Amino acid sequence: MPMHIRIVAVALLFSALPAFAQSTSTAAPTSSPVHDFTEGVWTFSLYTGYNRECSTDPQMGYVSAGVGYFFHNDFAINAEFRTYGVEQEGDEAAMFELDLLLRHHVIKRDRWTLFFDIGAGITQATRDVPTGGTHFNFIEEAGVGITYKLDERVHLIAGARYWHLSNARIHGEDQNPGLNGYGGYVGLMWKL
């Protein structure tokens, strides 16, 4: 089984366990807003995803952990750490990323929200990613997603993103085979 599929499968299993462990509540619903992404709220998120380059190579499965802060109602800044399994022509690689994301929840309903996010980060890999590129790269991404409230503190989070990975020509044009791709993710977000 390819490395990226193993990483996604294990991460899905572990991210689902806390939801199964939650006790069911029979208490009456409260009158507070269910999305409650108000200024000053902190969050922790854990999710898994899959990225694919627009052509056939490479493919990347990943696990992400992050902390978010709502600096204004429905606007958050998130710092995330991701670890990837990269399947590509030649050698497979492990890749690590530090990322900052800005997220805006634009539509808010009873138990769910729709958001847009945009971010950028740096990556370091155990091999050149892509093959013929460099170990160190930058990543930019933008996407759309949803949250769905599971209980007072836990939200399901899922989305899709377009991403671009390259080293910004820091080693010259001939060693900068940038990648453009798309991906999806699913996981949990806890209000702290």
Describe the structure concisely for a colleague.
The chain has 192 residues and is mostly beta strands. The protein has 1 helix and 8 strands; from the N terminus they run αββββββββ. It has an 8-stranded antiparallel β-barrel with strand order 1-2-3-4-5-6-7-8.
- Architecture, CATH level 2? Beta Barrel
The string of secondary-structure elements, in order, is HEEEEEEEE
Report helical residue fraction.
Answer: under 10%
As for the CATH topology, it is Porin
Q: What structural class is derived from the secondary structure elements?
A: mainly beta
> How are the strands ordered across the major sheet?
1-2-3-4-5-6-7-8
How far the N terminus sits from the C terminus, by CA atoms, comes to 36 Å
Q: What is the total domain count? A: 1
- What's the CATH first level? Mainly Beta
Stretches where pLDDT falls below 50 for ≥5 residues? 8-32
Number of helices: 1
The residue-averaged pLDDT reads: 86
- Categorize the overall geometry: elongated
Rg over CA atoms? 18 Å
Report the sheet with the most strands, covering strand number, pairing sense and barrel closure.
8 strands, antiparallel, barrel
